[in-house]
Fold:
Amino acid sequence: MQKLPSIWITAIRNGLLAGTVSLLICLFGMVMQFEQRYIISGVVTMGQILYMAPVFFLGYMLARRLNLAPLKALAVGAVTGFFSGIILAAFIGLGQLLNLRSVLVQASPELYALLTFNLDLIPGVLAMLGFLALIGALGAALFLVPPHIRGALIGALIWTVMAGLLRDLISTVMQTWGPVAPLISWMFARSGLTLIGAAFVFLLSGALGFVHLKLPVWVVRVVWLLIALVVLLLPRILGVFLSDVLDTVGLFILMGLGLNIVVGFAGLLDLGYVAFFAIGAYTMGVLTSPELHGTLTYWEALPIALLVCVLSGFVLGLPVLKMRGDYLAIVTLGFGEIVRLLVLSDWLEPWLGGTQGIQHIAYPVIGNIQFGSQQMLYYVIIAFILVAIFIASRLKDSHLGRTWMALREDEDVAKAMGINHVTTKLLAFATGAFFAGLGGTLFAAKLSSAYPQSFQFLVSINVLSLIIIGGMGSIPGVVVGGLALVGLPELLREFAEYRYLVYGAVLVAMMLAKPEGLIPEARRELELHEAEVEAVTEPEPEAQAGGGS
Amino acid sequence: MAVLESRKVTKRFGGLLALSNIDLAVKEQSIHSVIGPNGAGKTTFFNCVTGFYIPEEGEILLEGRNITGLSPDRVTRLGIARTYQNIRLFKNMTAVENILVGMHPHLKSGLIGAILRDRRTMKEEADAVVEARRLLRFCRLQGKGDLLAKNLPYGDQRRLEVARALASKPKLLLLDEPTAGMNPSETQDMTNFIHQLRDELGITILLIEHQMRVVMGISEIITVLDFGEKIAEGTPAEIQSNTRVIEAYLGRGAASGLGQRKAAATA
Structure:
């Protein structure tokens, strides 16, 4: 009985936390920005989803953490939601008394009206409190359904929101294919999904998520074949602008596959990964751009560029051999900046173009086929990604992969096993540099130019984030992480302003809810959830006894 | 001939003299123990032998070859393997994987082999797995090969660490407190296991041990260290009656008292 009050205090505390996050989301202007963007036409906007999301999320997390009997979990969720509402209510109340707008630009009457459902002050606030309590309870309820249904439900929710957000993209794609074109008016409103469309997407994705495990092999094969076909046809369907997005996503996936070897397999935290990307792009530039008297073609310059990247991988690797963890991260970060500053410098301007960069860089040509346009270059990128996936997965299941893992686990013991940490680490750095360099040459070919601004520190962070989101060490995770973290923000232009805010929030949320990533590597999942499995199975009798008394 | 010989090995940490002029010779196929109170320098000595520390003075010879100052991986390749006082397995790797990592000195495939998966690489890998399973069986870990090392029971983890060390086919095996934290029956198992290693595999064993019952039962030669100095060496019987050893363990004055009580017990 002693534990009883603490549950409610935890719920209140989490509620206040969720409310604060919601409030911040409102004050950053995200809610108002997306107020017109309907997910389900006339029912719910993206803005509303954004301020509800923290409440829902914390309701879910709290239920998961406390592991209570159903009714109690619902009540805890409701309390969480209610108290998050208290924060928003206090804010609205304050807004009535003072003019907050002089300090907080976004604290507008429109925001208050949105939060209170356009009702009068008192009924509006009460409605909001009740509504948020309901959202919190729903979050908790999500934890109570059996795990396999829960996965399907979460998937269905996410897909429905995505379908609403990506309405323009999806309807463009559907228009190109006759048989499904009539569905557009039925599924989509002028903004977001129709109610029927939403139900359709929700049920379809939910059902797919639910039966996912039971598909026979041939169906899976057919589905993969279809996916491959779609991947090959994508540039034709999507047109030039979206092909450009695809190319960017592809380049990031390529880099992600390389960094995944360095960070995911060998455990060497490299924050200066963009350096190799830059070196690849610039070597290609120097060798092929007529401006700098380069005369080679793309294919002639490629091996040289890759060799330069691998060698620079060694150059970075050598001084950092004895460093671990955070020290390594700082040094590699410095390396990334040095490379960027070198290509920017006046000193090297005659050779590297300085701030002007390099123009007229060659693109790949095979026979009569020119891979210069975004739509054509896409195929080269896909081909290189396939090669990278092949190499990465082979390495992972090899003795070298095991050696990297041993080095990641315990460097001293690995040495005592006869492992030469110098060559092993350098191999990881060099392989990583190879893939980044490959990406760099394609990046240069895509823009037919290379500028120092393209190789900011943030690129390294983006690549690292997509690995973390996808799942450290997991190869499919890199692909999914790339699509989610690079592709989505390009498609959701309104988010551009909040891009790194959302990045940060997503990373924090992922670390709390699913630290192993979206598509975890089997082993990593085992590491992180073993303790949890034991924890869930053990205290159950206790929780029941607590509920009964 | 001695498998391992240490000549006047001295190791300092700043002003602290951790090892001072240690002379030690480990005979082929013997079980040799190093004992001594806490802080006597036993593990420091192990670290000097395996290349983790470089002694300031003196030299270490493996089968007559000077290995002083070689890096740990070179020392391992030359035939010295070790285990740790606090178990240091690759916790998030399976038991078989741990052993396969231990086989590293004998696996030749590299980056290119891993990517191409040529016949030689595949055969080497397949043979290695067979050998790893055989080692598992030898260390009585059969059926546990695919469990993560951290999920094995304590005694199994100790034996897995030995199996991993054996995987490098060492001439000399250093065991750092192999029975630490074990109950009497587990300790007995481990003692038998160490005998088996020597008798069946012909490996020379140098071990650090705290439990006197184990030390006296298992060792052929015992070397006693105290404050970085070698204070005695001999057979278990000799060490048991050595006054300097008793002093080191129990303090000056206890030696004479203990001698008397022992005389009374035998009488």
About this structure: The longest strand of chain B covers residues 2-13. DSSP finds eleven helices and ten strands in chain B. Chain B touches chain A at residues 50, 52, 71-73, 76-77, 81-82, 84, 88, 90-93, 97, 100-102, 104-105, 107, 109-111, 113-115, 117, 121, 125, 128, 148, 151, 164, 168 (CB under 8 Å).
